[in-house]
């Protein structure tokens, strides 16, 4: 089970809301940010929405000095961005756990910088907690992941339905972050490039390296969940408020596993038009 929600900083009002939504309550009703089509497809996939769950973390994102003429990761900032998102995700998972959910679908991760502090940002995780109609998967396991936590997925309702129909189960959202400082060009280098089409190797190497670090950290998380692979991967870059030469590269996707050890995906049959036969 996930940690005690009160220890994670979930407010009392949220606990009361979850208690009212818990299945079996006379006044229980579900809430969801799924569209109508997504809601129907999630139900078709064999999952009942229980309620909207969320996690939030107001985080002070500090500053780290780096040499202006050197490509380098700013590890303090990388760790801050990762930890803030992890706090939001963990609180969202704890809310789902209180509802007895098997998973959370349609998860969104957002960042909002606040006007009351230039270095303050709110990290928000929101999704719809769901319960499987069948208590176990076809291979006899539960729908929760190997940490006994509700699975999380940022796939759309349509993609989630397709994934389950194809014989795969989501294990969890996996992510990797890297905040990277790209070296400034020296004056004579910048002047030499004026009017020319030319690759800038130091910029290419910096951005390549930063993306690789984010991707490798995401893959390491998937390995910890014993996943077969990661689907729906997105690789985003965010400048935030650090200036033009410092960027966060953020990799995120849904780790999955097959529902059967001997699972194979059937190859669709090609049907030719009559004129081509």
Any overview of this molecule?
This protein is an alpha+beta fold. The protein has one domain (5-260): 2-Layer Sandwich (Translation Initiation Factor IF3). Helices cover 30% and strands 29% of the residues. It contains six helices and eight strands; from the N terminus they run H-H-E-E-H-E-E-E-H-E-H-H-E-E. The chain has helices at 12-21, 36-44, 75-98, 157-165, 187-193, 201-224, and strands spanning 47-60, 72-73, 103-113, 120-132, 151-152, 168-181, 229-238, 246-258. The strands form two sheets. It has a four-stranded mixed sheet. It has a four-stranded antiparallel sheet with strand order 2-6-8-7. Helix 2 packs parallel to helix 4. The mean pLDDT is 81. This is Heavy metal-binding domain-containing protein.
Individual helix count: 6
CATH class: Alpha Beta
Beta fraction of the residues?
Answer: 25-35%
Low-confidence stretches: none
> What is the number of independent domains?
1
* CATH superfamily label: Hypothetical protein apc22750. Chain B
How are helices and strands ordered from N to C?
HHEEHEEEHEHHEE
Number of E strands: 8
Tell me, rounded to a whole number, the average pLDDT: 81
Distance between the termini: 58 Å
**CATH level 3 topology:** Translation Initiation Factor IF3
Family: Belongs to the UPF0145 family.
Organism: Pseudonocardia dioxanivorans (strain ATCC 55486 / DSM 44775 / JCM 13855 / CB1190)
Protein name: Heavy metal-binding domain-containing protein
